[in-house]
Amino acid sequence: MKTTKYQRGYGLGNYRGLRFAVLTMLGGKCARCPQRNLRVLQVDHVKEDGKRHRDQLKTKGGITLMTAVLQEIAKGHSARFQVLCANCHMIKSQERYAA
Ligand SMILES: [Zn+2]
């Protein structure tokens, strides 16, 4: 699929822009380590309800989920999420199964 100049931009209408906005609103830093590189930061569902959230939205993630996260933050529910870097996110998932 060809992308337009607009879609390649950094507005809220595209995934990269949306993800950037969400990560910045959630602090723009990993909750567990000093990592601040947005390229490796991810949104984590603090209470492990990410699967339920995705099922509710009937999505596997991507722009639909990121839009919903932004809406939750706008409603004042930002405590539901935290920013983790890819490493810390992986470690957190592993801890969950090791417990
Ligand atoms: Zn980290």
Read across the widest sheet, the strand sequence of neighbours is 1-2
Instruction: Give the SSE string.
Output: HEHHEH
Number of domains: 1
**Percent range for β-strand residues:** 5-15%
Structure write-up:
The chain has 99 residues and is mainly alpha-helical. The protein has one domain (15-98). Helix content is 45%, strand content 10%. The chain contains 4 helices and 2 strands, in the order αβααβα. A two-stranded antiparallel ribbon has the order 1-2. Helix 1 runs parallel beside helix 3 (62-74). The longest helix has 13 residues, at 62-74. The radius of gyration is 14 Å and the shape is globular. It starts with 14 loop residues before the first helix and ends with a helix. The model has no long low-confidence stretch (mean pLDDT 89). The protein binds zinc ion (ZN). Residues 30, 32-33, 35, 84-85, 87-88 line the site of zinc ion.
Question: What's the quick description here?
Answer:
The chain is mainly alpha-helical.
Topology:
Blueprint: H1 15-25, E1 41-45, H2 50-57, H3 62-74, E2 81-85, H4 86-98
Bound molecules: zinc ion.
Features:
binds zinc ion, 10% strand, globular, mainly alpha, 4 helices, two-stranded antiparallel sheet, single chain
